[in-house]
Amino acid sequence: MKKLPFNAASIQLLQTELYALKDNLLAMEATAAITDFRNWMRSKFEFSPNQTRYLEQMGSDFINYAAGRVGFALINRLPIYFNSPNFEGQEYGAEKIIRGSDKTYFSSDNVAKGSLSFDVSYKLPVLC
User: Fold this and answer.
1) What is the C-alpha to C-alpha distance for residues 58 and 53, in angstroms, rounded to an integer?
2) What is the DSSP letter of 107?
3) Is 73 helix (H, G, I), strand (E, B) or coil?
4) Can you tell which superkingdom this protein's organism belongs to (predicted)?
5) Backbone dihedral region of 115: left (phi > 0), alpha (psi from -120 to 50 degrees) or beta?
6) Is 51 among the domain residues?
7) Which of 9, 72, 86, 95 is the most exposed place for a label (fewest CB within 10 A)?
């Protein structure tokens, strides 16, 4: 798989490619995402300098959360959505906010269902 630009369309394309893999290969991808999320992301996507900097500065709590949830969604072939406005807020001093929404669950037949999404928004500073 070649690296893709980091955006919502590429995330959907990557899922299509990954979910076409045999179970054992998909399990290896999920394990890689869980074990070293940053490196797994870097192996899949081309990041802009700002995106690279942001990925490197993300706190370990969020990285661990994202790694576990993404790994779970991958191994169970569940949809992962990424919603982000087309906005580079750094030049305006905006705070980037990423909200994870885990709607995954197990049904009574012990099958994982649901979806995972990450929604990006920006909070602009208040200027007085």
Assistant:
1) 9
2) -
3) helix
4) Bacteria
5) beta
6) yes
7) 86
Separation of first and last alpha carbons in the chain: 49
* Mean pLDDT (the chain, rounded): 90
- Give the Cα separation of 110 and 37 in Å (integer): 27
Q: Is residue 24 part of a domain?
A: yes
Q: What is the per-residue pLDDT across 22-76, written as a single tens digit (0 to 9) for each?
A: 999 999 999 999 999 999 999 999 998 988 998 999 999 999 999 999 999 999 9
Instruction: Extract the tokens encoding 127.
Output: 């200027």
Report the alpha-carbon distance of residue 128 to residue 1 in Å, rounded.
49
- Asked whether residue 118 is domain-assigned, the answer is yes
Domain count, the chain: 1
Largest Cα separation within the chain, whole Å, is: 57
Between 60-75 and 23-35, two packed helices, what is the crossing angle to 10 degrees? 170
CB 5 within 8 A of CB 46: yes
d(CA 37, CA 17): 18
